[in-house]
Amino acid sequence: MDVFTQIVSIVGRVTPNHIEMLGTAFMVSSDGKYVTAKHVIGDNHNGLVILAPHIQKINDFQNVSDTQCQPIEAKVLEIDPIKDLAVLKADIKFTGKAPVISNLNKVSVAEKIGIFGFPHCVDGRRVLTFQEAEIGAKVLLESNKIMSKHAVINIQSRPGQSGSMVFSPKTGEIVGVLIGTYAPKSAGIIVAGINPAELNQTTHVISAEYIKEML
User: Fold this and answer.
1) Ranges of residues in the chain whose predicted pLDDT is under 70
2) pLDDT tens digits, 89-135
3) C-beta of residue 163 within 8 angstroms of C-beta of residue 123
4) CB within 8 Å of 213: residues ≥ 6 apart
5) If you write DSSP's letter for every residue of 32-82 in order, what string do you get?
6) Any idea which architecture 104-212 has in CATH?
7) The pTM is what?
8) Which superfamily is assigned to 4-90 in CATH?
9) Which is nearest to 4 in space by CA: 177, 128, 157, 158?
10) What span, in angstroms and rounded, lies between the C-alpha atoms of 186 and 41?
11) Are 150 and 207 in contact (CB under 8 A)?
């Protein structure tokens, strides 16, 4: 599990006053290629950075008061707006063995998957967090008349988790990328800054097989 502390990171953007944490990204090659959700970085590709790992072991206590970080410039290599994926490149080398990129075909409904990401990093909280959930369903989602493989997982995702790595604890392979909470179209009612339509217990994950097409 310690390997995930070195390959799962925060993607951020440099602003005049600070570094804005945008969401989660994870390394998919030893030469510093990272994958995240396209909506995490948006259409502004200026000033993007990957924050270097802040812990070495998953059981280390993470100091939430420590605001120091090591930003490393990141460039956008590939964007797939249909599948909501982006590949970034940062000047980071990884000498360990990264997990194999697989797909959602390798996991079954009701099977456990693991998630590593940074929930609430958009609110300034940098804590690498492991979560576990079950595959609730496998679905095909259409965007611009193109079908993509997704899984519905039984967990409510939090802001900052988009782009998180989803893996199979059984095989250790990366099977998907967390895209976000399923939010049906609502009437636009917001209560205390919250869209009630987003208060559900399921989240969408896109199959990791589409990463290979972008590398």
Assistant:
1) 183-201
2) 999 988 888 889 999 999 999 999 999 999 999 999 999 999 999 99
3) no
4) 80
5) -EEEEEHHHHTT--TTEEEEPPS-SSTTSPP-TT-----EEEEEEEEEETT
6) Beta Barrel (2.40)
7) 0.91
8) Trypsin-like serine proteases (2.40.10.10)
9) 128
10) 25
11) yes
